[in-house]
Amino acid sequence: MDVKEALELLKRNGYKYTGKRERMVHVFAKEGRYLTAREVLDHMQKDYPGLSFDTVYRNLSLFEELGIVEGTEWSGERRYRFNCGGDRHHHHLICTECGRTRAINICPMNAILGKPDNFEITGHKFEIYGICSECSPSENRVQ
Strands across the sheet with 101-104, in order? Predict the structure, then answer.
């Protein structure tokens, strides 16, 4: 997903193109990581000092519904990032310090279940949480 695709998706689905929505899309494009609603609000406060949490949450919910952002939850808080896009099935490694992600191009479900009898899997989510090499203390870095 990129800014142009996200804004086109909004328009195509009949939603107003507002400055706040455009700014929010740019925040996700610039950050390239999972963000909390508070972080999104903090990024937007300079341009929109009266912006409320309700407005941010409503737009995050809309963006997730439209597939502009992906949501996940860790440490009891919902977080969002730009949708990876594409039809390629994948999962993520997620840094709990900075929120950056890296795709895992294999599916652990194949090893766990294979193809179960009398059951059609229609979806699943697999995420691994940890600390990326940029966020880990230098003495713990793997070279």
Answer: 101-104, 91-95, 127-130
